[in-house]
Design brief:
Layout lengths: L5 E7 L12 E6 L5 H9 L17 E6 L3 E5 L10 H17 L3 E9 L6 H12 L4 E6 L6 H15 L9 E3 L8 H17 L1
Parallel strand pairs: 2-4, 2-5, 5-6, 6-7
Antiparallel strand pairs: 1-3, 3-4
């Protein structure tokens, strides 16, 4: 898939205000500081599309971006940011859950995982929750340029082992680097494949 056009459409905390044109949506979510904005900018070839920040917890809204006038890339707030107040965390969680559970045009959730870390409890809990709610998701490991290939394989194996405790079949796994653009083509081709399969139904 070639991205010819990527532009911001709307930010909000209410799924009733999300776009109503029925185009497929692909959401990106992960713990704060996992490199979500950098990955979105790398995928769309637009360094200014999603706001990157040194401060975790910057995204606090559901952000819709239209890609090639065909599908939406949705940037969701990061989870697990301890410095946010309990009240604002509860509000974020409510509208994120609302979006994930009720959004009929949501085709896939890309769960971003820092490849440098061993399996994190909060990530595993979130993926298991997606499974319980039958929300299709994929695992996207970020920042693979920051560690050796043997260390990466070690961490991927750890995740696989943890996931196999709960899952008979593992979701699709992608490895990416926003710096080298590794994984870009494979991820975009996966989205294109889902879109074309949906059109044939």
């Amino acid at each position: 898939m070639k991205i010819k056009e990527a532009s911001f459409v709307i930010s909000n905390t209410d799924i009733k205000k999300c776009p109503t044109d029925g185009k497929p949506e692909y959401a990106f979510i992960g713990r704060s500081n996992v490199g979500k904005s950098s990955l979105i900018n790398m995928l769309t070839n637009n360094s200014k599309l999603a706001k990157t920040s040194g401060k975790p917890g910057k995204t606090q809204l559901i952000n819709h971006f239209i890609i090639n006038q065909e599908w939406y890339l949705v940037d969701l707030p990061g989870y697990g940011y301890a410095k946010a107040s309990k009240t604002s965390r509860a509000q974020w969680e409510k509208f994120i859950v609302d979006y994930l559970e009720k959004r009929e045009t949501l085709f896939n959730v890309f769960v971003l995982l820092d490849s440098r870390l061993e399996p994190q409890k909060i990530d595993l809990e979130f993926m298991n929750w997606c499974g319980e709610k039958q929300i299709p998701f994929s695992m996207v490991f970020t920042k693979i340029d920051k560690l050796s290939s043997s260390a990466l394989q070690k961490n991927l194996s750890r995740y696989k082992k943890e996931m196999q405790k709960y899952w008979e079949e593992l979701p699709p796994v992608f490895t990416t680097s926003s710096t080298s653009k590794f994984g870009r083509e494979r991820l975009l081709n996966y989205i294109e494949h889902i879109n074309s399969s949906a059109l044939q139904q």
